[in-house]
Amino acid sequence: MSSNIKRAVSLYSYQEEYFLRKMSLEECIAAAAATGATGIEIVGEQSVLGCPKTPSEAFIEQWFGWMDKYKVTPVAHDMFLDYNKKKGHYWTDEEAVESFKKDIRFARSLGFKIIRVIVNTTPQIIEKVLPFAEENDIKLGIEVHAPWNINSAWMERHWEVMERTGTKHFGFIPDMGGFTRRLPRVQIERMIRNGADPEIAKYVCEQHEKGVMAEYTIYEVSKMSNRRIDMVVAEMSRHNTFVNPLSLVPHMDKIIHIHGKCLEMLEDYTEYSIPYKEVINVLKKYGYNGYIATEYEGNRHIQDVYEVDSVEQVRRHQEMLKNYINS
Amino acid sequence: MYEKYMIVPERAKKNEKGFEIGARLPYYRGVSLSMVEEIEVSLDGETLPQSDVVITVHGNSYNLEQRENELDDRWEMGEVATLSVAKESDLKAGEHTIGLKINLRIGYMPFPSIRVAEKTVVIG
Fold it and tell me: How far is CA A278 from CA A245, A246, A270, A282, A285, in A?
């Protein structure tokens, strides 16, 4: 069963090389395009100096020049709300809305049609900014990132805004990290390098894979060890959730974009932790036709001892998506 | 995250006030300077007062108070900033152990984002 699901790459995936100035912004775009992906996502405050200020005319021209040259389309910009930007002051809703509007102007100036809304954004803020998003034809997507899932209490409140307003400009952006069936091996190994007990780590991984509720595992580990690092390993089971991919089904028409999280792409084109085939089969069967944007994030767990090769990790992830989407 | 790259030893040297090191923000995006809650430098195990640290990003320098109030200028992702640390006593040229703790206020994180690093650097 083929599908209309489209493939994008978030340039966030190349953060290691970009951070170390081994790849320029143009080289990130070129690498994304070379995988066959047709869409580009960015974390604006990572990729563009001064973001969320609207970029200069010269940058905008260069940006669209790159889009033409590499035959890709701007898809999504990921925004943040720095509520506590000023020490000792928590933003009012009005201040948050003003910041949000800057991101909408930024996204529009570079041709993005979707904004990934950071998960701590309240439903009230969304409602206040929605008319401006509609005017600018920018779709807002609240990111459903583990440990939240699409049916969490917080997401139910956002869902209620979507239902009540009937808007076409607000929906969900699930992150595939919400389907972590096995705990990420790269992360576990890093914890062991940092001093975690390998036996406890093995136990936590086994319990997680069996679907045992994290609270049980955390309590059991608290009896085995009084070291904080072992508890952090146990708590990984709470943070890296797995829920049935069918949980997406009732919300399919509200899913506007998807983050294809990956931490370790294997040589056989599978992701170590996330059963992508199962999730993509659900997306295909129930008619999702937006983008899945590769979001490689394994670098942070291996950079202490290994050379990071984000380009290869993204390439494998895109190959995997292509196989599952078209099979 | 990025602890390994926080301290940039090639940029370490003595200066007229004490010494300076290069530093990268341990985060995947740039942030306004006001969000950098703490920059704590230690020298050979001695923690130095945070009020003695001046940060310079792309030519603009900020002391602690100025940094806390700087809502616009940003420490960009991967940008090597200079941390200049006042140190009265004469610093011996040669190898020193530098410690660096950076604490960021990130709105969506339920706890402070604290990263620490340590490196042996040559301060000439």
Answer: 7, 9, 12, 7, 11
